[in-house]
UniProtKB/TrEMBL annotation:
Coiled-coil region(s): none
Binding of Zn(2+), residues: H120, H124, H130
GO cellular component: cytoplasm
This protein's record includes keyword Disulfide bond: no
Protein name: Endoribonuclease YbeY
GO molecular function: metalloendopeptidase activity; RNA endonuclease activity; zinc ion binding
Alphabetized SUPFAM superfamilies for the sequence: Metalloproteases ('zincins'), catalytic domain
Source organism: Erythrobacter ramosus
Length: 159
């Protein structure tokens, strides 16, 4: 998978390299994300921008840490051959202020929390979810935890 990364309103840092490492690890654990035809856009932006996107696209009038906008259904991903023209997987947006606040509350580095949210967003783009059942949430959390372990990041769900 190829990432198209845009960074606005985030502090200096190697966010592109972090995103690439997170995407690589996600592709190793979720093979659908390893398809070389896939392109995902990743926007590192402000709470204000994510608030606007959340209001316009999800009818939720508040910022959130990460938004994912899939462009392919899981069944389409499963049927996608590895050769052929590029396919847009979807878009992800990360809100800096919310991510930074959550990282501070959890006592983790902003980079670790951002990596978790990138992985979380990519899994959503691959058709994983956590809202319909506890089993679904547990499966997605286990996959996230395994991916983050590959990056040397502790289990974010370990209370």
């Amino acid at each position: 998978m190829q990432l198209d990364i845009d960074i606005e309103d985030w502090p200096a840092g190697d966010w592109e390299a972090l995103a690439e490492r997170a995407a690589q690890a996600a592709g190793e654990a979720e093979p659908l994300l390893a398809n070389p035809r896939l392109i995902a856009s990743l926007l590192f932006t402000s709470d204000a921008e994510v608030h606007t996107l959340n209001r316009e696209w999800r009818a939720r009038d508040k910022p959130t840490n990460v938004l994912s906008f899939p462009m392919l259904e899981r069944e389409e991903l499963e049927a996608l051959a590895s050769d052929g023209p590029p396919e847009m997987l979807g878009d992800i947006a990360l809100a800096h202020e919310t991510c930074a606040r959550e990282a501070a509350e959890k006592g983790v580095a902003l980079e670790a929390h951002a990596a978790h949210l990138i992985v979380h967003g990519l899994l959503h783009l691959a058709g994983h979810d956590h809202v319909d059942s506890d089993a679904q949430a547990e499966a997605m959390e286990a996959l996230e935890t395994a991916i983050l372990a590959k990056l040397g990041i502790a289990d974010p769900y370990d209370a």
